[in-house]
Design a protein that fits this description.
The chain is built from 2 helices and 12 strands, in the order H-H-E-E-E-E-E-E-E-E-E-E-E-E. By secondary structure, the chain is an alpha+beta fold. It is globular.
Length: 211
């Protein structure tokens, strides 16, 4: 009568288990590599049919192609302006809202600003953004109903007196063709006179998102 086979020693058993696990891991890796190769081949075939450029298939246009939205027309926009006292200056801005049903874009450059009070244009010198402006990302493309903010800070007005009970009108000129009229709708006033020989200065931002 033959003796039953001798069971493997503990060291041999652990070695067998380790080898089995390694074989299982290799099979999984080979299967995953096969799926990746098949996906790459399928993408290449689809890219060839779509025009021969895989990037054209994998990438979608930024903003759904809205970055190339047509320039806004004045008839598509509504705006209001307002400011209030802030350390001898007037700080505020103008909000521009797309009231149409179509996406449009504002020019990239900050607008030229004119303040008209009681039918008289006030003499101000425009400068770039002020460091006290609230943070906000640049916002050019306006979806229907979206609002961009032009921040304003006005320093040193020593000109003729104005009736602060009558709101001013702020005109925002973007380039040569787009002028947006923003009547005052909040608080307003004129900044403190810091010297008649110093210019009246208006700091202006480009279109920003409202935080």
């Amino acid at each position: 009568m033959m003796a039953p086979p001798k069971p493997p020693a503990q060291d041999e058993l652990e070695a067998l288990i380790k080898e089995a696990r390694e074989r299982q891991l290799r099979r999984r890796l080979l299967a995953a590599a096969g799926v990746a190769v098949a996906a790459a081949v399928g993408l290449s075939i689809y890219a060839s049919l779509a025009g021969g450029n895989p990037d054209r298939v994998a990438r979608k246009p930024a903003n759904g192609g809205r970055a190339n939205a047509p320039l806004c027309r004045a008839s598509q926009l509504s705006a209001t302006a307002g400011w209030q006292g802030a350390t001898q200056s007037m700080l505020g801005g103008a909000g521009i809202t797309n009231t149409s049903s179509s996406v449009c874009s504002l020019p990239a450059a900050r607008p030229a600003v004119r303040i008209s009070w009681q039918g008289r244009a006030l003499a101000v010198r425009e400068r770039g953004p002020s460091p006290v402006f609230p943070s906000g990302n640049a916002l050019r493309v306006l979806e229907p109903g979206a609002t961009a903010t032009i921040y304003l800070q006005w320093w040193n007005y020593c000109g003729p007196a104005v009736n602060i009970k009558v709101p001013p009108v702020v005109y925002l000129r973007f380039g040569k063709w787009l002028v947006v009229r923003a009547p005052g709708s909040e608080q307003w006033g004129v900044p403190y006179c810091n010297g008649s020989k110093a210019p009246s200065t208006l700091f202006v931002s480009g279109p920003r998102s409202t935080n």
